[in-house]
Amino acid sequence: MNKPTFTIQDSMQRKIKYENYKFIFENNIYVSLWQFAFETGLYQKFNNDYFFTVYWKFNDIEHKITFPNRNAHFLVDPNSNLIICRWFITDDQLTDITHFLNMDGTINHKLKLPEVVYCRLEDGLKIPYKPLVPSATDDMTKIGSFPVEDIPATMNFDEELNSLVGQYYYIYDWILYRKYDAIRQEWGDIVGHSGHAG
Length: 198
Fold this sequence. Notes:
Blueprint: E1 6-10, E2 15-19, E3 22-25, E4 28-30, H1 33-39, H2 42-45, E5 52-58, E6 61-67, E7 73-77, E8 82-86, E9 88-90, E10 93-95, E11 99-101, E12 107-110, E13 116-122, E14 125-132, E15 143-147, E16 154-158, E17 163-170, E18 174-181, E19 186-194
Antiparallel strand pairs: 1-2, 1-5, 2-3, 3-4, 5-6, 7-8, 8-11, 9-10, 11-12, 13-14, 13-15, 16-17, 17-18, 18-19
């Protein structure tokens, strides 16, 4: 099966090519639609009120997705061949939840956040900068947890890891970065974290 070609059109009627997790316009490469909007003047010209429309053809049928604001997030996972979208129009409603779509535009699944972030306990205190994924052999009396914030996760593709890497929040501004398998719909290894300490 040939991979579809994705073309993106912005509020200024410019066409952007999507290829290998990058956005290409006039021989310049951008890592996100937000970067493209900011660096090409779209961000300033429309005072943040701009849109993108993604077009592609699959099985001889034209498809499109509309992203009506600056938070547009779009990519294609090369491992699962699923389209990943956030802040787009579905069922005539704007959603900020990350969706995984099949190439025919139907919903494969919605990204589900873990309920907690596990971490090491030291002297009875939960240490946010020592997150972990417990194994079956871990002593859970030495492991604490923080609830995951009710903020939709974002997803990117890491070429070095050859994996999707999602990020979600805990304890306000702490962020956990984990691999994600879109085929199994499972979160995997932790690959990083960030916060105000540690």
